[in-house]
Amino acid sequence: MTNKISIHEIARRSNVSIATVSRVLNNKGPVKQETRDQIIRIARELNYKPNSTARSLSRRKTDSIGVILPELVDEFFMNIIQGIDEEAHRYNRYLMISSSHSQRNDIETILEFMSSGRVDGVILMAPSFNDEIYEIIQKSHCPVVLLNPGTTRKDIIGFSIDNYNGAKTIVSHLMGHGYEKIGIIRGPVHNIDAQQRFKGYYDALTAGSLKYSEAYDVSGDFSLKSGYYAFTRLMSQSDRPRAIFACNDYMALGAYQAARNMNIRIPDDVALAGFDDVFSSGIVNPRLTTIHIPIIELSRRALSYLVKMIDGDIDSTAPYQETVSTGLVIGSSCGCKQSTAQY
Amino acid sequence: MTNKISIHEIARRSNVSIATVSRVLNNKGPVKQETRDQIIRIARELNYKPNSTARSLSRRKTDSIGVILPELVDEFFMNIIQGIDEEAHRYNRYLMISSSHSQRNDIETILEFMSSGRVDGVILMAPSFNDEIYEIIQKSHCPVVLLNPGTTRKDIIGFSIDNYNGAKTIVSHLMGHGYEKIGIIRGPVHNIDAQQRFKGYYDALTAGSLKYSEAYDVSGDFSLKSGYYAFTRLMSQSDRPRAIFACNDYMALGAYQAARNMNIRIPDDVALAGFDDVFSSGIVNPRLTTIHIPIIELSRRALSYLVKMIDGDIDSTAPYQETVSTGLVIGSSCGCKQSTAQY
DNA sequence: CCCGAAAATGTAAACGTTTACATAAATTTA
DNA sequence: TAAATTTATGTAAACGTTTACATTTTCGGG
After folding, report:
1. Residue B341: which residues within 8 A CB-CB, separation 6 or more?
2. Nearest residue to A291 via CA among A160, A164, A128, A114
3. Å from the B309 CA to the D5 C1'
4. Do B85 and A77 count as a contact with CB atoms less than 8 A apart?
5. Is the CB of B189 under 7 A from strand C?
């Protein structure tokens, strides 16, 4: 039960000053080889580990990065964390993770995180971007990178998914099958991803000279259940759509269940496509045609950029936006015979 | 662009000493109401946030907790984080999360985390428990709680899943359907969960006076793919099993795909059961009969216990084990008509 | 063998808090 | 009203590092 040993203890035992010890431990400044060896030996013997709190205070740098996500559920958010973690490990940074605990004032969480000096920078994914958040970021002296900011502002630093083109691509793919009556199950009204996906859908239709019809446009909230009901509603009308684009996979999966209940065959009676490429969409039969989001890659880049801001390799005040493009994953739910994904 | 303000600045502006300011900010020690009000006012005006690094150094307490998981993938690990996060929020603790980056020396990761004073305690889920890890925990002065330690040692603090009884329950359920030839798709050989689940399977069989047969025992590694091949192997023999217990859901899902390829109907030709109750198992058709693990609850309890150790409310040196019991989730993959889960 | 430069080491002041202890002011007690 | 309390405040030393600056030692060249 050795007491916690400090740099002082090492200095005492090696008959040198703490400055010398610090120099050795940080490989900074000249030290006689002999002294160096001895200090290292003693430090190792005592199993010395520098106190990182003291280190942080002195260096004014914590080597940790805050990650604030709207919630901590799903493979999706896990993938974000995974990507960030991998990259953080590369840069020797630690990760402080927190959900914004939507029930509470998430802004406060953010502020707390950023202002207390607990982290050197923050990766923030807010449920929705608003002026208050913008203000906080501007005011704080803490570098912030936004994940999927969902705003048209240009004076921020953000990494986004190309929802618009993803949606356009997949709807175009459905059109390529010759379907003309293509319905949509929307996401939450105020969700920017959902809005962009809708726009992609809309523009794909009109670009292909199909007409948008309100009868084929039903709302959902990204949940499985909402997909179930939305599908039921869409297919209960006399003039049914021939294909449906669900704005995310969970809703598409809900649609599968509704289809089974209604004895509707996918893709024979109605084709189906989703968005996100969640694990389950590769499990269901027929495999769901969907859009893959390179979310791990996106997170990695975001972290990498943040670290460079922190290290001063990149100007933190300069706005920067990056958008990663999505990939079409072809299953047979759209009517294709051959799937691009294999197991 | 106000410079970062410290307690000194507040003291200066309020014409008091920093001690008084500190007292006000921490609600500690007597301060005249008038002085107090003024200090609070000024602190608020300047939007003062105490530097948590300095605070940690002085108090010898970081208010953060380390979480080390073998990997950061899956809903499963996300659920762990979710449970921990919820509870951490209740106790006002921050979470430092890291995967043990299995490619590297995970032990070193752990040591680093625990010895550097970056966290007040650690929740550790190791890929496999071994003596080295045990040594580290004993030596370190940092409270450690193990998640699913998978050891029979009694001198540790750990929170576990009752794999054994879970497996026994579900295999018994299969037997209740009258199936006599019950196969198993095992998990990784060195994985303790997998071993315990196998034992549950074995004991359930023999308790019901069925005989264990090597022909029905094939190995897997918890991956979907391994489930696919294991199923194929099991069902390629002339004397096929009538039911199969896959040691986790992903392997069971792989079995679904193999079954589809081989034109084998579930549950008509072969009944199937899994373990874990992952999201996808509720999606597939027929719904997978499986075992639910209250992992969020388990994580919550682990964190709560750890915090109490840190706060000195619980003796950190006393061993403690807790096991949470699992729940049977009935789908129709086992042959049941009525499912307990609904969507 | 002395001088100057380079190398090695030490001293002490940060970093921004908390807190034991000392002191001063206000209040009560007798 | 002086002494004894109680309340309010200040001083200064921690906490364990890093690092600018000062000082000492070493070493090569004249």
Report:
1. B282, B287, B329, B330, B331
2. A164
3. 40
4. no
5. no
The rounded percent of chain B whose pLDDT value lies above 90 is: 84
Instruction: Give one DSSP letter per residue of B119-176, joined into a string.
Output: -SEEEE--SS--HHHHHHHHHSSS-EEEES-----SSSEEEEE-HHHHHHHHHHHHHH
Question: Domains along chain B?
Answer: 7-50 (1.10.260.40), 63-162+295-325 (3.40.50.2300), 163-293 (3.40.50.2300)
For residue B62, list chain A residues with Cβ-Cβ distance below 8 A. 53
Instruction: Yes or no: say if B96 and A65 are a contact pair by the CB < 8 Å rule.
Output: no
Model confidence at B343, in pLDDT bands (50, 70, 90)?
very low
Reply yes or no on whether the pLDDT at A107 is more than 60. yes
Q: Any idea of the CA torsion for B19, B24, B30, B34, to the nearest 10 degrees?
A: 110
Q: Within 7 Å: CB of A32 and strand C?
A: yes
Residue B29's H or E segment, with its range, is none
**How do residues A233-278 score in pLDDT, each as one tens digit?**
999 999 999 999 999 999 999 999 999 999 999 999 999 999 999 9
Chain D positions under 7 Å from a protein CB? 7-12, 14-20
Distance A40 CA to C8 C1' (A): 17
Of the candidates A219, A154, A228, the one whose C-alpha atom is nearest the C-alpha of residue A188 is A219
Query: pLDDT tens digit string along B299-311?
Result: 999 999 999 999 9
The alpha carbon of residue B82 is apart from the nearest alpha carbon of chain A, in Å, by: 5
How confident is the model at residue B182, as a pLDDT? 98
pLDDT number for residue B1: 36
pLDDT digits (tens, 9 = 90+) for B75-119: 999 999 999 999 999 999 999 999 987 655 677 788 888 889 999
Q: How far is the CA of A19 from the C1' of D21 (A)?
A: 13
Q: Is B290 helix (H, G, I), strand (E, B) or coil?
A: strand
**B93 close to B62: Cβ distance less than 8 angstroms:** no
The answer to whether A170 touches A202, Cβ cutoff 8 Å, is: no
State the first-to-last Cα distance of chain A, in angstroms, to the nearest integer.
53
A320: β partners: A157
A101 contacts in chain B (CB < 8 Å): 89
Question: Is the pTM higher than 0.85?
Answer: yes
